[in-house]
Design brief:
Helices cover 51% and strands 20% of the residues. It is an alpha+beta fold. It is flat and about 125 Å long.
Length: 578
């Protein structure tokens, strides 16, 4: 029985080794043959392309035939390949070694592909030379016009390549025979020294090493071999329990880290990244830590103290906080926080505070400047007192408009503004807005025009009227006397585009992206204009709250066009005519 096991082990070992050696040998031989041929082909193409640039001068008549012939003969000697220079008609105009094919025409099929500007190569029997050759054809292209003026054909015999492959094949057979002989000797010695119980335990231990911890071996008896089998089974049971607990703990940890919103990057004691969770890959945009984080980790590993930095990656502001791992093995962990939104909000808060302070200071300063003369009796005339009071009232109204606009902006940005979406007549709302703006326009000498068709749209009627009032008031404010402001609408199948066009001074291109910001006032007439600076910001918030879009088109000196879209209302038979 034992002899039978040894025989089978020997036969199996020899069979596996023999098949493996032969398979690898043939694969290696095939790859080697392909490599040799590919290298030869690449060398011919590369040298041909280099020489083609030189033979271009001959085809263009800039180099004499003797020089070109010398060049081809030199290439022939270097590569060991016959070289033909063929013009665009397929005529062999020069041949290395002064062969007998000069003046003959090539087969059009051989010439067609290379004349399309593509290098070709093939291995074939060439009757003209009476042997198998590798033929490579390289187009000669005029770099100025891209025109193919001819081609360079290189014919390299394969006799040397075949001999090289055959020599390697002999080496392969010799190596295979030596490997099989050595495997026979070693296999016999190994099989003779292995008994069946030990063979079973060896296979079981191999499976355990591969993670199959539920493998158990048969206990053959109470001798030393039996005790070894019992110890191996006990070891497998202990390992199975320990590794199972560790695997469960690791899975739980990785699940928690993977579900974190913050990016987590783990580093080994040498500062190499060994773990990135999904959030870290999303924040960094790649699977490696940036140099700034690597430097931070190296500093933390050197000092043993936590540290942090801020960095900008892919238009994001990140905060990286690194801490050392104070356990056996060491290392460091970096937590990445996306603070872009927090920075943006802080910047907006500072800008808002500064703008609000400025906007509040202006009317308050003006009111104080006119109230003080009234209180100290400096102003005595009734007309002057009345004028001062009118100015104070105007500034008070301006302050009230600013507060109301700010409240509107706050409600819109917080999403607390309730929109009463319903179907209404756009022409009716446009007429109401034009009527309210008309007195101010007439006083300034600006002509108002309206051409809104009678179409029903969906939206909050009061809010849309507020949008029209803001846009019309803005257009009148920045249009000079004698100018024109036009309210129009273009109807499509599912939406309506409302436009407010003025003939004012226009807007500079660099100011257009800033128009929708709070408290921004375009200085389009090189002078100050009344207004809170919130009107266009409110317009954008209202339009976007409707799920629509708003934009502006303008050129300095040519006026401006403010436009926004509204959804058309569904057709109502009750409102249609007979």
């Amino acid at each position: 029985m034992r002899k039978n096991l040894m025989s089978r082990l020997m036969a199996a070992n020899l069979l596996v080794i023999g098949v493996t050696v032969l398979a690898l040998g043939f694969v290696f031989l095939g790859l080697l043959r392909q490599y040799i041929y590919s290298s030869r082909e690449a060398d011919l193409i590369a040298k041909g392309q280099e020489v083609s640039r030189l033979t271009l001068d001959y085809l263009r008549g800039e180099v004499d035939e003797e020089t070109a012939t010398y060049l081809l003969d030199s290439l022939d000697r270097i590569l060991g390949a016959r070289v033909w220079l063929v013009n665009r008609r397929g005529l062999i105009v020069i041949e290395s070694r002064q062969g007998h094919f000069r003046g003959t025409h090539l087969d059009p099929e051989d010439l067609r592909q290379v004349m399309n500007g593509e290098p070709i190569s093939r291995i074939h029997m060439m009757p003209r030379y009476g042997r198998q050759v590798m033929t490579v054809a390289v187009p000669v292209v005029d770099p100025e016009g891209g025109e193919v003026l001819g081609a360079l054909f290189l014919h390299a015999p394969l006799t040397g390549l075949h001999a090289t492959v055959a020599r390697y094949f002999g080496f392969l057979l010799l190596a295979a025979a030596a490997s099989l002989g050595l495997a026979t000797i070693l296999g016999y010695g190994l099989a003779r020294g292995i008994a069946r119980p030990l063979s079973d335990m060896t296979r079981a231990a191999g499976k355990m090493a591969q993670g199959e911890l539920d493998t158990r071996v048969r206990v053959p008896g109470g001798d030393e071999v039996g005790e070894l089998a019992k110890s191996l089974n006990h070891l497998a049971t202990s390992l199975q329990g320990t590794i199972g607990a560790l695997t469960e703990e690791k899975a739980r940890f990785l699940s928690m880290v993977a579900s974190m919103e913050e990016g987590v990057v783990g580093f080994d004691p040498r500062g190499n990244p060994v773990f990135l969770n999904d959030a870290a890959r999303r924040l960094l945009g790649f699977s490696q830590a940036p140099p700034e984080v690597i430097t931070l980790v190296q500093d933390v590993l050197a000092t043993g103290e936590p540290a942090g930095i801020s960095l900008d990656i892919r238009a994001r502001r990140l905060r990286a906080q690194a801490s050392p791992i104070r356990v056996a093995g060491g290392g460091a962990v970096v937590v990445l926080l996306d603070v872009s939104e927090a920075d943006r909000l802080e910047r907006m808060r500072r800008e808002f505070t500064a703008n609000l302070s400025h906007e509040l200071r202006t009317p308050l300063t003006a009111m104080r400047g006119f109230i003080e003369p009234l209180l100290d009796g400096t102003v005595t005339g009734e007309d002057t007192r009345r004028r001062y009071l009118e100015i104070i009232r105007a500034e008070t109204e301006r302050l009230g408009r600013l507060v109301n606009d700010m409240l509107d902006m706050a409600r819109l940005e917080a999403g607390k503004a309730q929109l009463d979406i319903a179907s209404f007549s756009l022409a009716s709302v446009a007429g109401s807005a034009l009527a309210k703006v008309s007195p101010g326009a007439s006083e300034k000498g600006v002509r108002l025009e309206g051409g809104v068709p009678g179409v029903d749209v969906m939206g909050d009627r009061d809010r849309i009227e507020q949008v029209l009032l803001n846009l019309l008031d803005n257009a009148v404010r920045y249009t000079a006397r004698g100018g024109r402001v036009t309210l129009d609408a273009e109807v499509s199948e599912s939406s309506v585009t409302v436009t407010v066009t003025d003939t004012g001074v226009g807007i500079a291109p660099e100011e257009i992206p800033l128009l929708w910001d709070r408290f921004y006032k375009a200085d389009r007439s090189r002078g100050k204009k009344a207004g809170t600076g919130l009107g266009l910001a409110i317009v954008r918030q209202i339009v976007e709250a409707h799920g629509e879009r708003v934009w502006v088109e303008s050129e300095p000196g040519r006026g401006s066009i403010f436009a926004f879209t509204l959804a058309r209302a569904p057709w109502d038979p009750a409102k249609s005519g007979p």
